[in-house]
Amino acid sequence: MATTTTTPTPMQAGSKQPADAHQKVQKLRELFADAPELGKKALENVLRELSSQVSEPPPPIESAGRVGARLGQRSELTIIVPLAPGGAKRLRTFLQLLGGNLSPGATKVGTLHDMRFVFFDNDTRMLFATSFDGDWDVYIDDFIALIPDYLDIIDSAWEGWPGIRHPGAKDYLIKHQITAEGWFVANPELSLAEIQRNQRVAKAVDEFLDKMG
Fold first, then answer.
1. Cα separation of 118 and 124, whole Å?
2. Is the pLDDT assigned to residue 8 strictly greater than 50?
């Protein structure tokens, strides 16, 4: 019988982990008992790395409101929807008209960081993923107020989409949204407005230094 080397947990190493960190690690080891050897080895390596960290652990993801996850100011939205007959062809042709770049509409929403569309299962389903600042309801309300026609062009490809102005639009989105279990944001405390302001300041400083040089 193989001998398992026990790696100290982050809690045992003195970092400020939740009180149940040890139990979580033990549960994880139990679940990995029948995993491939490479998976078990990788797990022990990562646990060893975590146990050596003495800094404050990263904050956990929180709720973005009715649905979705949030880290700091940034929230995520991930939807998988069935496509209506002909929907994929219509939507793909529209995206190609824009060169695949949705900035003409997206930049009107001042809290939107990114969004992407992925067709799969022979064009019968689509993944729509985006990240934004703040609360889920406020974000959807911004879409309704600022770019409703863009949304209806895109989402009319979805099976059963009622229209962004329809009272049932949010319920449709919630029905198909899947909250992320894990997520990483490089600068979760910076809103889009703050990022853009920092970029303007950096550009102004660079131009000033160029003139001084």
1. 11
2. no
Q: Quick one: 112 exposed, middle or buried, by C-beta within 10 A (0-12, 13-18, 19+)?
A: buried
Packing angle between helix 21-31 and helix 37-51, nearest 10 degrees? 170
Q: Is the pTM of this model over 0.85?
A: no
Q: Who's near 179: CB < 8 A, 6+ residues apart?
A: 67, 68, 69, 78
Helix 169-176 to helix 136-146 angle (10° resolution) is 130
> Tokens for 55?
């800094």
Q: How many CB atoms lie within 10 A of CB 174?
A: 14
What is the average pLDDT across 96-109? 94
Residues in CB range of 74: below 8 A, 6 or more apart: 113, 131, 132, 133, 185, 188
88/157 Cα distance (integer angstroms) = 6
**Over 50: is that where the pLDDT of 149 sits?**
yes
pLDDT at residue number 122:
97
Are 160 and 172 a contacting pair, CB within 8 Å? Answer: yes
Contacts of residue 46, defined as CB under 8 A and 6 or more positions apart, other chains included, come to none
Q: Virtual CA dihedral for 150, 154, 160, 162, nearest 10 degrees? A: 0
Half-sphere exposure of 211 (CA within 13 A, CB side): 5
CA 159 to CA 116: how far, in whole Å?
A: 18
